[in-house]
Each structure stands twice: as structure tokens, then as C-alpha cells.
Design goal:
The structure holds two protein chains of two kinds.
Chain A lengths: L5 E6 L2 H9 L8 E4 L8 E4 L1 H5 L8 H7 L4 E3 L3 H18 L3 E5 L2 E5 L7 H16 L3 E6 L2 H14 L9 E3 L5 H5 L12 H9 L5 H6 L2 H8 L1 H10 L15 E12 L2 H21 L3 E10 L5 E12 L2 H15 L6 E12 L2 E3 L6 H19 L19 E5 L1
Parallel strand pairs in A: 2-4, 7-8
Antiparallel strand pairs in A: 1-6, 1-7, 2-3, 5-6, 9-12, 9-14, 10-11, 10-12
Helix pairs in contact in A: 4-5, 10-11, 12-13
Chain B lengths: L1 E5 H11 L14 E7 L2 E7 L3 E8 L1 E4 L2 E5 H10 L4 E7 L4 E6 L2 E6 L18 E4 H11 L14 E7 L2 E7 L3 E8 L7 E7 H10 L6 E5 L6 E5 L3 E6 L18 E6 H15 L5 E8 L4 E10 L3 E12 L3 E6 H10 L4 E6 L6 E5 L5 E5 L2 E3 L1
Antiparallel strand pairs in B: 1-5, 1-7, 2-3, 2-6, 3-4, 4-17, 7-8, 8-9, 10-15, 11-12, 11-14, 12-13, 13-25, 15-16, 16-17, 18-21, 18-23, 19-20, 19-22, 20-21, 23-24, 24-25
Helix pairs in contact in B: 1-2, 3-4, 5-6
Classes of the chains: A alpha+beta, B alpha+beta.
Chain lengths: 403, 375
């Protein structure tokens, strides 16, 4: 295979950069985007001055404020971030159609067909993104996705100073193993704390040690994954840049800051998550036929239950009532819950049998379309169902995840 | 009661009434067949309270009487008896029916006929005379479009409208509608609108034998029932209360494209497509292509993530612009199966507006079908 040119691009402190654009007074200040501490919110993104104080993403906001009482807390405006993310991705698509968007602020590009070297391309892209959107970004480049991503992380960590790193780090072809060699094994994809600890017990701490380890031995210890780890540690990765990231399921989950055992609030959360999942289904023109819920107990053991519907759906109500049924089948009253999630799989393009005249179902569908349009224009909380507005009901908030 | 009846007649009669038996009802007598002597014949009746069927078979009656016995027991028994005379004798004291045929003797424990829901006699003078063959065809072409959704009782019925000598039947499940008109040989002299359960009409068309005979429809005042009567069969059904959708406004008045094609050809393509489409929401795509001189093609295709794909081409005369439209293939197959004419026309406007299917050269039937649409 010809040598590929892969770039990994990551917008620097994306949410914060957007907030600084919209409110220049924030520039150079220590601030964090996320939920309010009294609502048990977490840090979604924090500015570089805030990072200096030890604040990190996913940290509870209350803890962040203990570290830095002067920290400015800015509520998240995901709608704004989405618009700017789309603009950046559009610029990147002008460079190559072979683009894999990993998240709202992260993408891989395959630039193998362009004559320039990666260093030049990375600089040009960085400049164009900055000029056209005002957003700083960092890039890593290599012959494959694995090394490009790690190069980007390493590049950013090398930067010092109070501003965004605007890092560019290119690993030349053939130098992958050499580049990875001194890095800790945890840098490699798929190696988490558990595996890293087990490797450390076996005397393997760096990528070079892992790359040099006996393959049979690794397989005996870790199964097939052992071989993959060794390959990755040597900088080998032939996974393609996936243009169509086939979505297999859409799910939303929430980790409560404090374990929750109140049924009414758990059900309310399911209602919320179901509405979010349904909204994402509709905005992607999808319907799903399997509804799944996930519950994690305080001891971190996790339960999932799923059921397949007779007809695929993208409606809040159907997903919610199904999720409730599943919830009651695994939850015993009083049992505390650490995390709860709702997901829908079996996704398909919704071909609906049109009715001869409007039925209730059709009316519900049109109502949801109208609600979605209002939310698109005025934000997610602009319009809500009446039962969401119960007086005196404080909504459990926490860390939200999307998959 | 003591009667002698031919095994064939008895088996035939039991076969007809058994469709109205309610085997799992909380009322035990509904799992039974009423066997009663009736003016020189033997009457067999069963009812599930929604629908009742009676059948009269020839019999030699030596002693009048009536009993109800479990439908399954008597039907299974009679089916195994030789093609010979069967003698039924009732022991009224023990409510036991003795069934004797050749060397075979069976005693079946029954339930008092007084417990059987009454089936009052009908005043046949007041009825509407219908030709059996025409009426059966109407049912066959319409009833399949009724809904099976228990939550929409009105749509589980077939609307039957009579005005002068014109009889119209319509049924819809909300996604398609079948409308069939027929002209009675003589004016009924009255108008009526009644919604009859599609299940009862389908049953009626199954049990009434073809032939030159007439069927009488009777709607007794204030009973909420409709009764169909031939000389040896009677079907009583509950009438569905409610307002039937105004079907006349549903039929589109205009179209942009008219596609004429072979009913059998399109049906075959649909049946093949359904094998694939049944794994993917029954979606079949029709790509109507129009060329010059109206010589066109209908491409019929289905695809399923798991099973595979199917494609077919059917020759057609296409008048108007081409169109890609998707339908539920089962709906399409079901209407094509009941059309008798060799050719059909499909009238379309857009891929999200109703299509109209008509048998070519037959104005008495029209079928409106909503497409399946993305998003």
C-alpha cells in the first residue's frame, strides 16, 4: 500500500473558543463551560487559564470552583457549537472528501492524493480554519490514524503558555515506532487503566516495551487484543478514514452526581433522555426499532435491557413508555442508580405508510416536527411539554454523554 | 328428539356453523352447536354473540327436540363417521345426545338449549334481494381493505349503502380504500347505510354456495343486527355503530400520470418483490418510466438489508410524466388479486399523494392506496 497522509484535527478548547468569540470579555480569563454547581453540573470545557489551575473536562463544577473560586461558569450553548462545528467541517471537506468526523470538534482527513507534504498541509488548514471561523486548532499527522491522533495529543501537551496550543506535530513515514517508543502504554488506543495496570505488573510500561513483547505471551494474557496492542505499539494501523460513519444506535445517558433512588425523578430522567434520543433520531431522519435502557448501580455493575418494537419509531412518547417498561423490569423500589441511559438501535430510514386522512399518530408526528423547528430556532428549552414544568420540581442534572 | 340425517349433510352443516363458535368464551354454551328440529329439517346454529350462523340440513324427524353439544366434539366425531345415515337421539333427562352410525355409538353430554342465545325469526318480506354471485364478488373486492385494528371498530366494518337500485360497498383501514358499486335487478325501494363487520361478510361469502340463488338482506328495526338469509343458511351479525369516513372525498379527482399495465404481470412482480420486501417493512418501489409514444415501463423493486434485492420490469402504457413511488407491497398485491379484468390503470400525482387503481373497462370498482414515503 502506498504511504498515506493522514491528519487528525482537533479544535482547541472548542466550547470556550466559541464563548470567547461571542463574549470577548472572557478572553484570557479562567472560565469553564458547563452546568451550574448547585445543579451538580460538570465541566464540559475549560479555558487554558482555567487548566493552569488544574481544572479539567468532566470534573464536577463544584470541585472546579473549590480549586479556583474565581472561576467563571458559562452555561453551554450546544446549538452555537454545532453551527460552528459544521462550518469547520465544511472547510475541511474542501480539502478532501475523505473525512471522518469523530466528534463535534475532532476529525480525521486522508490527504494522500495531495502533492504537498503533511507539514505544509497542516499549516494551510490551520490558517484557513483560523481565518474563516476565528477558531484555533491543533493537528497531528502521520501515515495512519493511530499515530496521527497520538501526535496531535503529544503536540498539544508540549505547548506551554496561556493561550490555545495551535500545535502541529507530524511524524514522518517510518518513524512511527520511534515516535511512540517512549510514550506510556496508556497512550495506545484501547488501553485503559485496567490494561495499563496489568501491563505494568508484567513490567511493560512504555510503547517500545509493548512493541518488543512476545506476541504469544501477550495473546496468552489478553487474547486477540494482545496482538492488536503489540501492533499498535509499533505504530501499525491500517484502519481507513471512514467517510460514512454508519450510525448503529443513538443513545443518551446521564451519570448522577449523587446516586438516585427516587422513582419519580428517575422516570423524569428517562422522559428527558427519551425526548433527546427521539430528537436526535428525527434530526438525522432516522427511526429505530429497538429500545434499550442501561442502568449502572453504585457498585459500577451495569444492566441493560432491550425490546424490539413492532414498528420503528422516532417519537418521544413511544420511546419513553417502552423505556419505562424496561426500567420497571430491572429496578426495585429504593435501589440507588448511578447512571441511567436510553438508546435506540435497529436504525432505518423511515418509510412511513401515509394515511388517507390524519390520524392521531400523524398529528403527533406533525406536532413533534413543529416542536423540533422551534427548538432549532430558539434553543432546546424554548418549548417544553407542560408536564416538564411542574412547579417546585428540580431536575437532576449531571454529566451527560452521547454516543 | 330423534332424527336421522346423512353423514354428509351433517358434516357440511357443522363445517358451516363452526366458524361462529366461540371456543374460549366465558359462556360455555357458546362453544356448543345448537341442534334442533325445525319444520321438517335439522337446524344447526352457533354464535359468538357478534355473529351467528345457522344452517338447515335435510333430516328424517321422528321426534322433535333440541340440544346443544360441544362443537369440537360433534364435528370431530361426525368427520370420522362413514358416509351413511346418522341417528341422533336425545335423552332429555340427562341432556345427553346419542350419536349412532353403523356399529359406532357415542353419547355426548350437552347443555340445555334454553341457555343458547335466542335467534329470533326474521320477517323475510321486508328484506332486500341480492344476487349471490354479485354480492360475493363485492365482498371479495372490498372487505380485505377493512382494518384489523381493534382500536378502530368503525374501520373493521364494511359500509353498505343502498339508494334505489344502487348498492355501494366501501371499506378502508385508513391507508387504502376499496369501493365497489353494483346495480340491483330491481329497486329496493328504500335507502340505508349500515356498517357490517368485514369478518361477518367474509364469512358469508365463504359459506354461501355459488349458483343462481338469491340472498336476502334484512335489517330488523331496533335490533342493531343485519341478517342474511338463503334457503338453507342464515347469518346474523351485529351492526357497527359509528360514522364511516366520507369516502367520496378521499378518491382523487385528478391525476398527472396514468399507467396502464397487465394486472397479472404487475401482480407477479409484486409477489416476487414481497418475498424480499416482507423483511423490510413491505416497501416496494415502483419506478414509472415514460418514453415517447406512451410506451413505458414500470420497474418494480424491493430491497432488504438482510435478505437481498429483487427487480422486475413490467411493460406499460404511460401517459404523463414518470414517477418513483413506494407502496406497501401487501396492499398492492391484495388489490391486484381481486381484480378480474386483464388490465389495470394506476393514476398517480406525486410520491406522497394517493394512487388510484381501477380495472380497465370496469367503472364499478375503484381502489385508492396511499404510498409509503420517506421522512
Amino acid at each position: 500500500m502506498a504511504v498515506r497522509k493522514i491528519l487528525h484535527i482537533d479544535l482547541d478548547a472548542f466550547f470556550c473558543s466559541v464563548e470567547e468569540q461571542m463574549n470577548p470579555a472572557l478572553r484570557g480569563k479562567a472560565f469553564a463551560v458547563g452546568g451550574r454547581p448547585d445543579q451538580r453540573g460538570v465541566v464540559a470545557s475549560c479555558s487554558y487559564p482555567a487548566r493552569k489551575a488544574g481544572i479539567r473536562s468532566a470534573m464536577p463544577m463544584s470541585q472546579a470552583l473549590r480549586l479556583l473560586p474565581a472561576l467563571i461558569v458559562v452555561p453551554a450553548r450546544h446549538h452555537e457549537y454545532g453551527k460552528r462545528s459544521d462550518a469547520v467541517m465544511a472547510i475541511l471537506r474542501n480539502w478532501t472528501p475523505i473525512l471522518e468526523q469523530v466528534s463535534v470538534d475532532e476529525a480525521f482527513l486522508d490527504l494522500s492524493d495531495l502533492p504537498e507534504d503533511l507539514e505544509t498541509l497542516a499549516k494551510k488548514i490551520q490558517t484557513e480554519v483560523q481565518q474563516k471561523t476565528g477558531l484555533p486548532c491543533s493537528l497531528g499527522g502521520a501515515v495512519n490514524k493511530l499515530v496521527a491522533k497520538i501526535a496531535n495529543d503529544v503536540g498539544k501537551s508540549r505547548s506551554a503558555g496561556n493561550g490555545p496550543p495551535r500545535a502541529i506535530l507530524i511524524v514522518p513515514p517510518g518513524k512511527e515506532a520511534e515516535f511512540l517508543a517512549p510514550l506510556p502504554v496508556k497512550t495506545i488506543w484501547g488501553i485503559g487503566d485496567k490494561t495499563a495496570n496489568r501491563l505494568a505488573e508484567l513490567g511493560i510500561k512504555t510503547a517500545s516495551q509493548l512493541a518488543a513483547a512476545d506476541e504469544e505471551f501477550l495473546i496468552s494474557q489478553f487474547g486477540k487484543f494482545g496482538r492488536m496492542m503489540k501492533q499498535s505499539a509499533a505504530g501499525h494501523d491500517d484502519s481507513p478514514v471512514m467517510v460514512e460513519h454508519a450510525v448503529k444506535s443513538i443513545s443518551q445517558e446521564i451519570t448522577f452526581e449523587r446516586d438516585l433512588a427516587d422513582r419519580e425523578r428517575l422516570i423524569q430522567t428517562l422522559h428527558d433522555l427519551s425526548a433527546q434520543v427521539a430528537f436526535r433520531l428525527r434530526s438525522n431522519s432516522l427511526e429505530g426499532s429497538t429500545v434499550r435502557i442501561k442502568i449502572r448501580w453504585p457498585d459500577f455493575s451495569t444492566h441493560t435491557r432491550q425490546v424490539t418494537l413492532a414498528q420503528a419509531t422516532c417519537q418521544d412518547g413511544v420511546i419513553f413508555s417502552t423505556a419505562c417498561g424496561l426500567f420497571d423490569s430491572i429496578w426495585a423500589p429504593g435501589r440507588p442508580v448511578r447512571l441511567i441511559g436510553v438508546g435506540v438501535s435497529g436504525l432505518q430510514t423511515p418509510f412511513r405508510q401515509l394515511p388517507l386522512w390524519d390520524s392521531m399518530d400523524e398529528k403527533e408526528r406533525r406536532l413533534l416536527t413543529a416542536v423540533d423547528e422551534v427548538r432549532e430556532k430558539f434553543g432546546k428549552t424554548a418549548i417544553q411539554r407542560g408536564d416538564q414544568l411542574k412547579p417546585g420540581f428540580s431536575h437532576p442534572d449531571g454529566k451527560r454523554g452521547q454516543h | 328428539m330423534k332424527v336421522s340425517v346423512s353423514q354428509q349433510h351433517l358434516a357440511h352443516g357443522l363445517g358451516i356453523v363452526s366458524r361462529a363458535v366461540a371456543p374460549r368464551s366465558t359462556l360455555p354454551v357458546l362453544a356448543n352447536v345448537l341442534i334442533a328440529t325445525d319444520e321438517g329439517r335439522l337446524r344447526l346454529s352457533a354464535t359468538n354473540l357478534e355473529m351467528g350462523i345457522s344452517c338447515w340440513v335435510p333430516a328424517e324427524i321422528s321426534e322433535e327436540g333440541a340440544i346443544t353439544v360441544p362443537a369440537r366434539t360433534i364435528s370431530d366425531l361426525v368427520a370420522t363417521l362413514p358416509n351413511d345415515k346418522v341417528v341422533l337421539t336425545l335423552d332429555e333427562r340427562s341432556m345427553t345426545l346419542n350419536v349412532r352410525s353403523g356399529q359406532s355409538v357415542t353419547d355426548i353430554k350437552g347443555i340445555d338449549p334454553q341457555e343458547f342465545p335466542p335467534m329470533p325469526p326474521v320477517d323475510l318480506e321486508d328484506g332486500v334481494e341480492l344476487n349471490v354471485a354479485d354480492f360475493k364478488e363485492m365482498i371479495q373486492q372490498v372487505a380485505f381493505s377493512a382494518s384489523v385494528d381493534e382500536a378502530r371498530p368503525v374501520l373493521q366494518g364494511v359500509l353498505l349503502s343502498l339508494a334505489g337500485s344502487e348498492l355501494v360497498m366501501a371499506a378502508t383501514d385508513g391507508f387504502r380504500i376499496s369501493i365497489k358499486k353494483s346495480v340491483l335487478s330491481s329497486s329496493a325501494g328504500k335507502s340505508l347505510n349500515v356498517i357490517i363487520p368485514a369478518r361477518a361478510l367474509t364469512e358469508l361469502s365463504r359459506i354461501v354456495a355459488d349458483g343462481g340463488q338469491m340472498i336476502t338482506m334484512h335489517i330488523p328495526r331496533d335490533r342493531g343486527q343485519v341478517i342474511f338469509h338463503t334457503k338453507d343458511i342464515e347469518l346474523v351479525s351485529q351492526i357497527i355503530d359509528g360514522n364511516f369516513p366520507d369516502y367520496k372525498v378521499i378518491v382523487p379527482r385528478t391525476f398527472k400520470t396514468r399507467t396502464v399495465t397487465s394486472a397479472a404481470g404487475l401482480l407477479k412482480a409484486c409477489k416476487q418483490a414481497e418475498i424480499i420486501a416482507r423483511e423490510s417493512n413491505n416497501i416496494v418501489r415502483l419506478n414509472i418510466l415514460s418514453n415517447s409514444d406512451q410506451i413505458g415501463t414500470v420497474e418494480v423493486s424491493a430491497q432488504s438489508e438482510e435478505t437481498g434485492t429483487n427487480e422486475n420490469k413490467v411493460d406499460a402504457t404511460v401517459d404523463g410524466p414518470g414517477l418513483a413511488i413506494a407502496f406497501n407491497v401487501r396492499f398492492l398485491r391484495e388489490v391486484l388479486e381481486v381484480i378480474k379484468s386483464p388490465n389495470i390503470s394506476l393514476e398517480t400525482n406525486m410520491n406522497n399523494t394517493p394512487g388510484v387503481i381501477r380495472p380497465l373497462g370496469d367503472d364499478s370498482y375503484v381502489h385508492v392506496i396511499m404510498p409509503m414515503h420517506m421522512g
